[in-house]
Amino acid sequence: MEAYTEFATVYDTFMDNVPYEAWKKYLVDILKAEGIKDGLLLELGCGTGRMTRLLAAEGYDMIGVDNSEEMLSVAREYTMENTEILYLLQDMREFELYGTIRAVVSVCDSMNYIMSEEDLRQVFSLVNNYLDPGGIFIFDMNTRYKYEELLGDNSFCETREDSSFIWENYYDPEEQVNQYDLTLFIKEEDDLFRRYEETHFQRAYEIETVRKLIEEAGMKWEGVFDVETGKEPTACSERIYIIAREQGK
């Protein structure tokens, strides 16, 4: 079962508690500190385009890349009039652009969907290739602590007026692979709720492993921060930001 097919239609409904505005401010603060106040930016794993649109509203020329046609369809519907955002249906491991860009961002644990170190290194290599000289890459990742201690082998559910879901989670600590089987019930035009199923896989990466892959891809490691505190991660950090810099092709 493919991920983000029917889920795309209700994704923003169930993600309404995600602090996109706070994340946007963090990204923009870093970008402006780097002197990147405008110009061309890329978001990898843009999904329905929530962050893409927020950055476009800050004056950036945005490109959004995602491998879910359904998610991009929602993104295009939401895109504001007079806001030109280029959405590309591409796999992050193989994405292609027409030229270089000032910065790349990725949020909502999109990088955790890359299931092998080889593929993650390839993503980093492509980012380095398309960044302007000295350009930066800012992305977040879920931590092993979150998968092991918070998600684990648990089930979650949520009900809204027109949709609901059951999330059955499984985490393999040896492979560091997190699987969740998502059962969706979505109200349709005939007022009946139809059932859909998707399976998602993510992988936990140690910070040291990510740093090694970034450096092997030719990028410079700039730092890692806890998303909640903005400080150095602890053993209980759930989500982290990582910043890397282009330093030669």
Provide a descriptive summary of the structure in words.
The chain is α/β, with parallel strands linked by helices and 249 residues long. It folds into two domains: 7-142 and 206-246, Vaccinia Virus protein VP39 (Rossmann fold, 3-Layer(aba) Sandwich), CATH 3.40.50; 145-203, Single Sheet (N-terminal domain of TfIIb), CATH 2.20.25. It is 29% helix and 35% strand. It contains seven helices and eleven strands. The strands form two sheets. A seven-stranded mixed beta sheet has the order 3-2-1-4-5-11-10, with helices on both faces. A four-stranded antiparallel beta sheet has the order 6-7-8-9. The radius of gyration is 18 Å and the shape is globular. The termini are far apart. GO terms for molecular function: methyltransferase activity. Residues 42-135 form the Methyltransferase domain. It holds the Pfam family Methyltransf_25.
Distance between the termini: 37 Å
Largest sheet: 7 strands, mixed
Strand order of the largest sheet: 3-2-1-4-5-11-10
The residue-averaged pLDDT reads: 92
Q: Which strand-content bin applies to the residues?
A: 35-45%
CATH fold node name of the largest domain: Rossmann fold
CATH class label of the largest domain? Alpha Beta
Q: What structural class results from the helix and strand content? A: alpha/beta
> Total helix count?
7
Low confidence ranges: none
